[in-house]
Amino acid sequence: MNKSMLVGAVLGAVVVSAGGAFATYTLVDRGPEFASVLAVRPVKETIRTPREVCKDVTVTRQRPVQDSNRIAGTAVGAVVGGLLGNQVGGGNGKKIATVAGAVGGGYAGNQVQGRMQANDTYSTTETRCSTVTDSHEKIVGYDVKYDLEGKSGQVRMDRDPGQRIPVHDGQLVLTRQ
């Protein structure tokens, strides 16, 4: 046999063997290409955002009191009451009526001034603010229940996979290609 014929025969055998092995490898069942999705449940997170809300309100205030002891009202009432009491009776009765009129007038003047001061008010507008919290839900992922060759499993994904999840070398492909 000739040397080139021997080399050719050996090379031919190698090529045929390699071609058969490659063909057999591509025909071998490498497992499923997809896992079936059984259920998908969105995972939500509540987002709370505080914000300030302000509004103008009308406020009624009492004016500052100049005479908190009501001395002016008491004095004016005592003088008027004394003058009126002096008009009644005669002799010692006149003196008693004058004193009684002064005391009664002083008390009445004190009370009148107190009511006047309490009713001396003014209105103004003030801005009142409060914090309110807005909230909304955000989907942060999906809990996916799946079936792969008769075995159930669960995985969290960043998206809804639809009806099936791709499988590569027996493993779920969880990211988008």
UniProtKB/TrEMBL annotation:
GO cellular-component term (any): outer membrane
Cell location: Membrane
Sequence ranges assigned to domain Glycine zipper 2TM in this UniProt record: 72-113
InterPro entries attached to this UniProt entry: Bact_OM_lipoprot/Surf_antigen, Gly_zipper_2TM_dom
The keyword Signal appears for this protein: yes
Signal peptide segment: 1-23
Keyword Signal on entry: yes
One Pfam family per UniProt: Rick_17kDa_Anti
Keywords: Membrane, Signal
Name of protein: Glycine zipper 2TM domain-containing protein
Organism: Stutzerimonas zhaodongensis
Lineage of the organism: Bacteria, Pseudomonadati, Pseudomonadota, Gammaproteobacteria, Pseudomonadales
